[in-house]
Prior knowledge:
Layout: H1 3-11, H2 29-38, H3 43-57, H4 65-72
Helix pairs in contact: 2-3
Amino acid sequence: MKPEDLQKLVTLPMPYGKYKGRVIADLPSHYLNWFAREGFPGGELGRLLALMQEMDHNGLKPLLDPLRQAKLFK
């Protein structure tokens, strides 16, 4: 994981699928868990989805709140 990955989680939208356009950090748990079971896509998107699933699974989503707030003030 790179520090900038956390910023990407709160700014990068999902590029396809049922939740297209929704920021990765806002994807529902069941969707992230589905990817964990079925396989994450390749590349950066898959890496970020896996990171978000791990954070969600371990109850670490609140760590992204300061980044969300910083985004509002830019």
